[in-house]
Amino acid sequence: MITDPTEITPTRSFNLAYIILDSLFICFLLAFLFLKRKRITLIWSLFGGILYFLVDYGGFHLITGTREVLINGVVQGELNTALVLLWMSLSYGITNFCFIWLLLKNDEDKYLFIFLIVMWWLVCPSLSEAGGKPNIVTQRTTGAYHYIMAVFLIVGYGAMVAYKLFRPDKRHLFSLLKLNLIGIAVQFGWEAALLINGIRPLNGFSFQTIIVNSLIETNMGLPYMWLIYFFVSNHYNDDFSPYTGKKEYLFKREEETVA
Q1: What is the share, in percent, of the chain residues with pLDDT greater than 70?
Q2: If DSSP codes are grouped into helix, strand and coil, which group holds residue 134?
Q3: What phi and psi, each to the nearest 5 degrees, are found at residue 2?
Q4: Exposure pattern of 29-59 as b/e (b: 16+ CB <10 Å)?
Q5: In the chain, at which residue ranges do the beta strands (DSSP E only) sit?
Q6: How far is residue 51's CA from residue 49's CA, in Å, rounded to a whole number?
Q7: Residue 97: C-alpha distances to residues 44, 47, 121, 158, 242 (Å)
Q8: Does residue 219 come out as left (phi exceeding 0), alpha (psi in the -120 to 50 range) or beta?
Q9: CA angle (3, 146, 194) in 5-degree steps
Q10: pTM of this prediction?
Q11: Measured distance CA(87)–CA(23) in Å, rounded
C-alpha cells in the first residue's frame, strides 16, 4: 500500500453507481458526437481514453507501482484494478480529449459540449449517492514521474517558443497563451469537480494537488496535440470530408498574427 505521508497522493473515492452512471454518460457523449458528424473528434476522444489507460494501468500501476485500487479497504488484484482503471481512463480520457479537440478546432458547438461535460462532472457524484457510500478508492503517488511530465512540458513549449522566435512569419499558427489556458482549464475543471463533490478528499495536499496537476498533467500534452490537430485539420473536416477552405487556429484566422 501507498503509505508515505510526505507524498502528494491524489485519491478518489466513489461507488459502483458512479461507475455505471458515468459509463452511460460516456456512451451518450460518443453517440452525440457521431450523430453530429464529429467523426474525427469522436476517434480522437476514444484515442484519449485508450492512451490514458496505457499510461494509468501500464505506466502508473505496472511499471512504477504508484497506482492502486481498494474496494472496502482491500487492495485489489490485477483484474479488478484493470477494470476500474479502464473505466476511469476512458471516462477522463474521452472527455478531456473531446474538450481539447473542440477548442483547438474552434468548433461551432464547443461551448454546448463543454457545458455538457462540466455539468456532468458536477452532478454525477450527487446522483451516485443513491447507490450508497463510496467503497471504491483509487490512489497514486506522483513523485516517481512528475519530473518526467515536466520534461515533456518544457520540451514541447520550448520548441514552440523557439519556432516563434525563428519563424516570425508563422507566428499566426498558434497562441502559446491559449494553448496553456486550454491545457490548464481541462485538468482544473475535473480536479475542481472531484474536490467539490468530495471524491477527492479535502486535506493538506488538496490545494497543491489541484495546482500541480492542472499545470502539468494535461498541459504537457498540448503542444503535441496541437501538432496532430494541425496536420489532420489541413487534410480533413471533422466528418472526414476533404478540407478545402481556410483554417482557424486557436480562434485566430490564418492571415492574423497571434502574439
Answers
A1: 89
A2: coil
A3: -80, 115
A4: bbebbeebebbbbbebbbebbeebbebbbeb
A5: 11-14, 67-71, 74-75, 136-140, 248-249, 252-253
A6: 5
A7: 7, 8, 15, 22, 22
A8: alpha
A9: 70
A10: 0.87
A11: 7
Longest dimension (CA), the chain: 59
At 85, give phi and psi (nearest 5°): -70, -30
For residues 113 and 13, what is the distance between their CA atoms, to the nearest angstrom?
Answer: 26
* Residue 233: alpha-carbon gap to chain centroid: 21
The C-alpha atoms of residue 193 and residue 123 are separated, in whole angstroms, by 9
- Is residue 256 scored above 70 in pLDDT? no
Q: What is the pLDDT of residue 248?
A: 53
Average pLDDT, the chain: 88
24-46 pLDDT per residue, tens: 999 999 999 999 999 999 999 99
Task: Write the single-letter amino acid at 39.
Answer: R
Q: Judge contact between 239 and 38, C-beta under 8 A.
A: yes
Pick from 76, 104, 118: which is nearest to 173 by CA?
A: 104
Asked if residue 6 has pLDDT above 90, the reply is no
Residue with cell 478546432: 105
Could you tell me if 136 and 71 are in contact, meaning their C-beta atoms sit under 8 angstroms apart?
yes
**Taking 90 as the threshold, does the pLDDT of residue 130 lie above it?**
yes
Whole-number Cα distances in Å, 80 to 84, 86, 188, 201, 222: 6, 10, 28, 22, 31
